[in-house]
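Human: I wish I could look at a protein chain and see how it folds. This is the protein in question:
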Amino acid sequence: MQAATGSHGAPDQGVESQDPQQKRTGLRRLFSKVVGERTVARDEVKPKPVAAAPLATSAPAAVVEAQPVPELAQTLPVPAVETPVEAPVVAKVARVAAVAKPAAAPAPAPAAPVAIVRTPEPEPQPDLDANLSEPTVELTKTQRAFNREAAAEEDVLPDVHPGDSVYQAACTHPMLTEEQGIQYYFSDGARSAKQLVEIVRGLPDLDPRSVDLLEFASGYGRVSRHLKKYPRIKLSCCDIHEPATTFLQDALGVRSVLSDSLPEALVVPQSYDIVFALGFFTQMPKASFGRWIRALYDTLNAPGYLIFTTHGLKSCAHQGMTPAELPADGFWYRGASEEHDLDPAEYGTSITTPDFVIGEIFRQTAAPIVEYRHGYWSGHQDLWVVKRQD
């Protein structure tokens, strides 16, 4: 740089004696010489910051081939080395990245999203470890307070059995707070009772003053407590869990009878105008599906109505499948449910096509189907109403 400074001082003195044209020519030469030298000086120092350590550490972070989930490739920054840098520097960074790959193994950033990777939850079913038939836990003080508030809004009894799997699932639902889950438990029970009452009102040949109704597979009274409010309904309940039938009788004041795991062994104290089974056939395996239709149909008066729901085509999405994936016979079954104390071979999760259900109704009863509604209950369960003739 001293040579440039010296040549800048010498012409400064002799420029005065030259004519204007020569003066301008000399200045241009001097300007180009000075600027050219400064440009060279900048080029010489330019690569130094580019090749600094931060680039070497950022390159491994951009190495995406280690990701186990393809969707992460859309969110992580792909090649950091594609930034406009001179070719020699890119080659240098690539070599550093290749050497640094093993050292960059602790990059846990991809591991965190993997833990959140879209868990299939079409139909959330909490894992309740407690034995539902012999509960070992009691409701908390907070739960009892929320029960009272929610029950008051629906004008029903607030008592809830700690072994009620539907209640526990609502309390632990990942999308709800405990208070919201309890509110849903009571409000959804009220909604189901109202839907049933509206269906019963549309049945023309029943006594308008009183109907004997059996709620089959009633559980611990989620719907039963609301059905009690309707004076026309003379309610009885039936369930496979003895603690449930005891709770219904003692706490909710509902006549109840214990069910059986075999359809042919079911014994009830009377016949009924209506048998209502909400969410029962949604759990039955093929071996007992039609047999239970027959067993419940046999408890009816004539005229009488069997009202039940099934998992239909709309329910496929809740099991992470499409209707096209159902077996050719129209029946799909998985031996798992929230009722851990029941044999999965006898109680699980089923999906049935309308053709399958119609075939079973005809084979078991030859009775007319007076009403069918696709996806009517809970937005996806099919509704069936079968009539026992005079």
About this structure: The radius of gyration is 38 Å. Residues 1-17, 30-136 have pLDDT under 50 and may be disordered. Residues 173 and 268 are 35 Å apart (CA to CA).
